[in-house]
Amino acid sequence: MICLKMSRLDRALTRFKRVVLITVAVAMLPFCSTAERINHEGRILGPEPMVSEPVLFNTPEADSIVSALQIFPTTSAWNEDISRRPALANSDAMIAKITSELSSSRRTLRPFYEMNFVLVPDNQSSVPIDFTYYPDESDPSPYPIPTNLPIEGWPRETGSLSLNEWQQDVNGTGGDRHSIIVQPGTGGLWETWLTQLTSSGWEAANGAKFDLKSNVPRPAGWTSGDAAGLSMFAGLVRYDECERGMVEHAIRLVVKHTRAAYIYPASHYASNPYTTDPDEPAMGQRLRLKSSFVIPDNWTIEEKAVLKALKKYGAIVADNGNFFSISVAPDDRFSDTAFDHLSSIGISNFEVVQTTGTNEGPRSPGAPSASAGADATTIPGKPLQLAGFVDASLPVTIVWKKYSGPGSVVFDDATKTNTIATFDQPGPYTLMLSADDGVHAVAYDAVVVQVSNGIQLQVNRTGENIELYWTGGNAPFAVESSPTIPAVFWDPVTNTDAFSLILPVDDLRRFFRVNGQP
Question: How many Å apart are CA 45 and CA 412, to the nearest integer?
């Protein structure tokens, strides 16, 4: 976006005796805006989040931070819209295999409260951590571990134990004990497995560092905190996104058994017992909830948020386990029944899709770009010419829509970049332009339109005075005059917060204008 002065909205002329001519015009003050940060879902993220001290995942502070994050690039496999991808040729056979390997009582989708996370500032002190199982496939210590590092399951699944007690596993509960550390300012992400605080410091089976701003996978053959070598944070169902009504990424999925293979974005396999059966899913395999599945209106907002994601982004196989399960943050703000209906969804409601590779799909050359044009102003009911622009190498579907604003917006043709928009109420509006070629990430841009009522003039002659009254606009007002139109210059008359002004009548021809605020 560029900074520009808003255009004059209207002009009213009134002629008086003794050749006094008065003109009133509205010229709003200049305003500036910068390009919006818009994520792959078309949601405006706002300013880059700031973290000054460690913030736990189950807090409003964490919600505001992660909701403003672009978690991996818009072109990431985790953020890829696979709703139009073709099904794998052996999808039915693979779904049958996944189903048959589970006991009859476990052949439905299960949400499990598992991984949590902590957000840390850029200057978080790094501490040593000892890797006990896979040091050769771990990113080296030290890690920016805060004292309040949460370990998988806390607090929802850990009873009355304090965080420090759970960090030490004082009851010897065991389990996977994953940990996740996110550093929004640098884009750093650290994840570990079998994490524990011991008398000599922190230890874990292994550790992996990811860059939230990069699509580069782990080295081929390397594991991570997850068996597939994937990020767990990327696929975690979080509280903030459920409450918005849409999980905006693929979801981490666990199945009973996988074959000795991995496909992008995975980097590691864990086949036990070992098999190369092509009907067994590979690590990184992507499943999708069938479009024919009808999401009931009376299910919870959390359930609907998850199911919409499973249709659009799917679920990525990341580990082996004893259920067909997805990972949910153990946030104690979720109600006890938030996800209950999900366990009624049979595995047969899913299909396996053909995935895209490292330089395919949204990561292939030729992605479209969109510009919504410069910010603008108008008045209610007055058509505004939009000046959008799209650059694309493939045919695209173009759509204008109202993203936010107090009233309704009518587009002459919302499928044209340069269309007309008409607003019915004053206030600030954000309009979104999108370009979708069906292959790449959708290109988005936004324009801000300030809609203000124009200043309407009424003039009364009272003896040797002229009384100016106006409505519309916002104080403070600047009243100026000029002896000619078009004006060479405007002389200041006065500044006022009032909506009226009394001036003496003289023998000069003068033109007046009133400048108000948006």
Answer: 28
Q: Per-residue pLDDT averaged across 267-289, rounded? A: 98
Average pLDDT over residues 34-42: 89
**DSSP at 157:** T
User: What whole-number distance in Å separates Cα of residue 257 and Cα of residue 260?
Assistant: 10
CB within 8 Å of 48: residues ≥ 6 apart: 37, 68, 184, 185
The percent of residues above 90 in pLDDT, for the chain, comes to 82
Three-class HEC string of 290-316: CCCCCCCCCCCHHHHHHHHHHHHCCEE
- Dihedral of the CA atoms 325, 329, 331, 336 (nearest 10)? -10
Mean pLDDT confidence for 213-232: 98
List, in sequence order, every residue forming a beta bridge with 255; answer none if it has no partner: 320
The three-class DSSP label of residue 26 is coil
Global pTM value:
0.86
Q: Which two tokens stand for residue 298?
A: 């009376």
Specify whether the CB–CB gap between 233 and 200 falls below 8 A: no
> Side-chain half-sphere of 348: how many Cα atoms within 13 Å?
2
Distance, CA of 507 to CA of 481 (rounded, Å) = 14
CA distances from 469 to 458, 461, 477, 491, 502 (A): 5, 11, 12, 20, 9
Mean pLDDT confidence for 349-365 = 98
User: In what helix (H) or strand (E) does residue 501 lie, and over which residues does it extend?
Assistant: strand 500-504
Q: Is the pLDDT of residue 14 over 70?
A: no
Residue located via tokens 């792959």? 40
User: Which residue's structure tokens are 């206030």?
Assistant: 427
Cβ contact 282:353 at 8 Å: no
SS3 category, 25? strand
Q: What radius of gyration do the chain's Cα atoms show?
A: 30
| 387 Cβ neighbours under 8 A, 6+ residues apart | 373, 374, 417, 418
- Rounded Cα distance, 484 and 490, in Å: 9
Query: If you search the block for the tokens 């209207």, which residue do you land on?
Result: 10
- Which residue in 294, 307, 318, 287 sits closest to 225, CA to CA? 318
